[in-house]
Amino acid sequence: MPSDPKIRASDADRDRTAALLREHLAAGRLTSEEFNERLDKAYAAKTMGDLDKLLEDLPGIDLYHLPDHSVDRRRGGGSPFGLPWLLAPRGGTGISPAWRAAWGSWATVSLIAFLAWLLSGHPGNLWFLWVAGPYGIVLFGRWLSHGSPQGRQKRRK
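-> structure tokens emitted (157 positions)
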């Protein structure tokens, strides 16, 4: 914050102070009553000095500090269908963007072939399966063997 306490506070400054107060409440440094009182004062503050007074007895914290890798944000199996091994065969936390694109292209091609089959009027001939089947089998096999969707293995150094 600026060193001159007479500078007028902006809405962003008030929001930043409110976010800091929320963090201090979550850390247990403020009671609910103190938090509500300071939050009301933060949104009524006219100057940066008014905002500084609300935080002067609290330690400084960095709102932009990113969590470390030990924080697991995906709980409960990691997969919407309960099959984490299917979405992340490499033991990762989710499907990569390259694999999403690969499976999306397979689904699109298969859907187009199926719709073309429906419109062709030949219900006995299931030719669309010859398009979707081999493409899907090759893609699924590459996925299970930890290959890349482009067909190139990443070299390990």
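The chain has two domains: 1-67, 84-144.
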